[in-house]
Amino acid sequence: MKTFVTLFNVENVTLIKDVGLIPYGLNRYGYYNAKIATYNNGPYENINNNTITIPIDYIKKITGFFTIDSILYLIKNAKKIDILNIYHSTFRSMFFIIVYKLFNRRGFVYCKLDGGFTKEETPIYKSFRKYVISHSDLLSTEMKFMQSKLARSWKRDISLLRNPFNLDEIQRNVTCKNKKNIILTVGRLGTYQKNTEILINAFSQVYTEIPNWQLVLVGPYTNNLKEMIDLKLADNSSLNGRIILEGNKENRDELLNYYKEAKVFVMPSRYESYGIALQEAALFDDYILCSNIPQFKELTKNFTLASSFDFNSQAELQSLLISTCANIDKCMQTATLEKDFLLNECSLRSISQQLYNEIEKLEIKNEK
């Protein structure tokens, strides 16, 4: 059986994202001997508690710089790796591809782009990337709109490969039958990207019209966001117990419990490469309110299975909060349809099989 290696500096939380789930799925369904090559950034609780099981090949910290130590790892191990999985189109990733191909000319490179473009879009870098990309065997992105954009820009085929979810984890954490009147958001709270402040401000304006609902915020947060919430609670004691800042949750099951209990999930992001939190919430039957960015449009079947709003419009979000809470039973029926849509689009089994088929097809083509 061929060896598939994902080269990425993995932390515990990364294991339950595509970086960990893809090699896990390829292993589990018997397609490849897959593993992750990384520094030891443990403890890896998501392995220890059997959320996933995946072999890890620890890269020695010879220099303490992941890029340099990974290059040394590739020089030593390239010939043992049949398929090298790299993430993003950064300079570092491109350099990994060059080193791997230099020491294993017959090796196969799969680059998962996670969006595609980078902050390094200079003319010199574009020329360098164009050269390296020509030596990559398979490139994929997660979104259709980005797939066509990249294909036009880079003048080569780009595959569409959604980010998978682990169905076992969903089934192990069966959705709560008695969901609560909770409006939930999960992410890096207070960052420009996540746009959390518009949700807090919107809820603060309409909370009297949705009297039995709480806003719960889960994830690491900025000091500015904490100060903003503290000021609102100090100025209006009626919001105490209505806006709850839970903070970061390292324990995976604890995080999933929030999805299980909530009825509504709001994701007001200004931009995303994908939207993993939205996908997770939908798989636990949360009704989705999301900003009208292209990534969310694809994940909600052109917004037919969710409600969207302009991420700059607090008024739109306020209106949606009121109407959603007033018609929650109907919204929950739509949430079930959204869950079914994602189960069909993004299951780990189907993504693993799709990736295996694409790699094998291209390897046969390369041999001719």
Strand line-up in the sheet with most strands:
3-2-1-4-5-6-7
What's the total count of β strands? Answer: 13
Cα(first) to Cα(last) distance is: 21 Å
| CATH-assigned fold name of the largest domain | Rossmann fold
Radius of gyration: 22 Å
CATH architecture of the largest domain: 3-Layer(aba) Sandwich
Structural overview:
It is a single chain. With 368 residues, the chain is an alpha/beta fold. It folds into two domains: 3-164 and 347-367, Rossmann fold (3-Layer(aba) Sandwich), CATH 3.40.50.2000; 168-346, Glycogen Phosphorylase B (Rossmann fold, 3-Layer(aba) Sandwich). The protein has 15 helices and 13 strands. The protein has helices at residues 18-28, 45-48, 66-77, 91-103, 123-133, 144-154, 167-172, 196-206, 223-235, 252-261, 276-283, 294-299, 314-326, 328-346, 348-367; strands spanning 3-7, 33-38, 56-58, 83-87, 108-112, 138-141, 159-160, 182-186, 214-218, 243-247, 264-267, 287-291, 307-309. Strands 3-2-1-4-5-6-7 form a seven-stranded parallel β-sheet, with helices on both faces. A six-stranded parallel β-sheet has the order 10-9-8-11-12-13, with helices on both faces. Helix 12 links the parallel strand 12 and strand 13 (307-309). Helix 1 (18-28) crosses helix 15, helix 3 packs parallel to helix 4 and helix 4 runs parallel beside helix 5. The two termini are 21 Å apart. The mean pLDDT is 92.
